[in-house]
Amino acid sequence: MLDARGMIKRRLGLRLWLSGGWLLLLALAAILAPWIAPHDPLMQDLFTSRLPPFWMDGAEPGYWLGTDSLGRDVLSRIMHGARVALIVALIAGTATALIGATLGLIAGYFRGWADLVISRMVDIWMAFPPVLFAILLIAVMGTGLTSVVVAIIVIDWTRFARVVRAEAMSQGAMDYVASAQVAGQRRLGTMLTEILPNVLPTIVALLTLEMGIAVIVEAILGFVNLSVSTDSPTWGGMIAEGRASVHRAWWVLVFPLITLFLTVLSFSQLGEGLKDRFDPVLR
Question: What residue ranges define each of the domains in the chain, with the CATH number in brackets?
């Protein structure tokens, strides 16, 4: 039994280290991109177009992951694209968590008309296809980083509201909540000091999952040219560009696609690892 528990803990630790290590490396690359990127991500040079990665014949020094059809360095564009992806993930994920978790706590703990109103709002919001709803919002607001963040917040707050509502309802039926109320604590104080700390691990785990979803949504919008300005490199835009020349320069598509996959997987595994880490049974 102890050996099985130890194996589970080691597996959880490895998952957290690997996912957290990749995200930390990506964050450092994004922050330091203006200083450590090999080239200007917007600099075009048709004489160096479609250069292969460093291990293939025909590669040139300094272009580690090759160049695209306009001679722009793929590695530099991936690093600068990481800035857009992580900014969207952090801002949109945090704002979505604050809005959705607050509404979920109110609905799950106070019940009554508050729960009825918030639950109906969630049902109505979830009737719209998320990606199509995001594209519609950006078509109305116009492209740009702010529009992408707002679109993600508008379509994804329901995820937090539903999960936190269910968790708050479960915690509200516990004896420690009844004890706090018998002791004379106000309902708002009970929600903030008793319910919230016990729901917080779920919110944190869900937040990391939401950041991965935000990265995917931003990449989808970039793929259809509805993300930030076309002058700014984004992973979705690079994938769209690489798709047109995949038979002649596969690296333009493959490397940003791998980076996107690893980033979303790391956010997902970090969220699952945190959730399991806070699981009282495993603890």
Answer: 2-277 (1.10.3720.10)
